[in-house]
Amino acid sequence: MAAAALLRAGLGGGRGARTALLTRSLLLLRRRPGVLPALASAAPIRGSHGQQGHGGSKAASLHWTSERAVSVLLLGLLPAAYLCPGPAVDYSLAAALTLHGHWGLGQVITDYVHGETPIKVANTGLKRSLPSPSKEQTTLHTLQCISPLLKTVEETPQPIPAKVKGHIPEWINGNLLRNGPGRFEFGEEKYNHWFDGMALLHQFQLRNGTVTYRSKFLQSNSYLTNRQHNRIVVSEFGTLAMPDPCKSVFERFMSRFDTPKPSDNASVSYVVYKGDYYVSSENTFMYKVDPETLETKEKVDWSKFIAVNGATAHPHYASDGTTYNMGNSYGKHGTRYNIIEIPPQKSNCSDTLEGAKVLCSIAPMDKMKPSYYHSFGMSENYIIFIEQPIKLNLMRIITSKFRGKPISEGINWEPQHSTRFHVVNKHTGEVLPGQWYSKPFATFHQINAFEDHGCVVLDLCCQDDGKTLATYKLQNMRRSGVDLYQVYNSVARTFPRRFVLPLNMSSDAPVGKNLNPLPYTLAKAVKDVDGKVWCTHENLHPEGFENFGGLEFPQINYSQYSGKKYRYFYGCGFRHFIGDSLMKVDVETKNFKIWQEEGSYPSEPVFVPVPNAMAEDNGVILSVVISPDENRSAFLLVLDAETFKELGRAEVPVEMPYGFHGIFRSH
To answer: In which compartments does the protein localize (predicted)?
Structure first.
């Protein structure tokens, strides 16, 4: 997924919620001798007061119940609970607050009572209402071994019917298409990195309330060659292919000087160009696939159409059908970041990328160490590219095979460099002259971008440490117990943040003052004496959000709100190496809702709008949920996007690895 372009290039409001919290409390304490009798005699407490959870609000009365008294008692007992945790129970405070598992279907964070008015427990007062656990408490003894979700599986080429529980709305007609690794070894040779696995294409077909599932391996040259030789012949992001053991010692040594074969393992995402569906990674190759049968069709090489050495797996789509993407080039003029424009219409039935053009090229701050990027932002009129201090050391990458190293060893986090924002007029290709900077951060996925009062508002998922890529080695992710906890705890959490880039700055713009004119955001943009504008983010989440592992794989109602001012986004919570919850975040109030089920790991959420919907969140969320428990089936989860409550699920008795990205194709 991250290959360089050179090679791969707690307080319930309703009666049911209170009962659930009490049930959870009892379950958490069931292994503590002498506690349950005391709880059984707990009496109601009346007349206590507290603060309303919303930031900036006034004090308000909260009515205590016996269940709330139990919850407070539970908090007092948590330190003791960590001294002798049982293997079957999750004792983290975050788990208690999210009320997940132990009963039926997945749970949503419910309401607590502010006077007579329900307020979401997941609002900005979360941390003010209850103490937050430390990062160690949140993860210690709670990380389940997920090794079964990172192993080779068989494909399911013929569609099989799913067992529907609950209700799948009949208006959902189409295919959920997903991509990700599905094979992690050939013969005795194993891949080292999660991103190296061979692409397995998944399809959930929804039609009139029924669901079928199928999957097929992408028939890439890398996959077919490796399978033919029953060993790893083509190098991947984190795995260097070893020389042919049948060759002589001299031939094997000399093979280090051979030009490496670029992988065409397109395992990251589905993308659409001119109405055709492709699977893509970040190198120069894509594969056209049939979205109905998952058959591998034509192989397409970006470099045959424009002077780039690859493109991202996250293009943006304009309302007129034009597609925009970014890709690097390495030529006589040095390294360049390139904005790519692909026209919406085919010139003939065999057309692929004909008519694609480079809209503009941007020189990196360091030509021998360009930045790695996985995505970019787009508003109505602008492309926003973030040059971050995750650096591609070109010399190390070029010499990686000679040195016996995979290309992943040439990607480094260099926080001595600042992060820079580049803004490009997507209609003219003009790079705006402004210099927008921020303290160093890493980002892989953008949420949305829009324009307001001469500013670009950019929302994205950020980390303060960009060494994450190196951590996602399979040997790390397959650990268990304390070893798994230690590795996971070394990974920087990802949080949603907002930046504001003022575009129309005159030379006499005041120095040292905040140039952000927007009253609804706390993000700052301050001009320095050298003309640079230093941007400080606003968090798009409440206090205490870190207890849910942060958020990644963000999605919005893209067809209606991409490039526009919006209110909601969706993503995965990451209290593990992979997503363990689904979240809906309100960027205006910073309230959020969560779906979570113990021992279940949901994929990136995909928003599907109701036909002719008027409200932004009028639709459903689709997510594929898997479990390392061999006795539990994988299932397609359908949530009401507004309430975030489960409508139904479609179970299939098939093993699936955890994947990356997907797309919904309506019929």
So the answer is: Mitochondrion
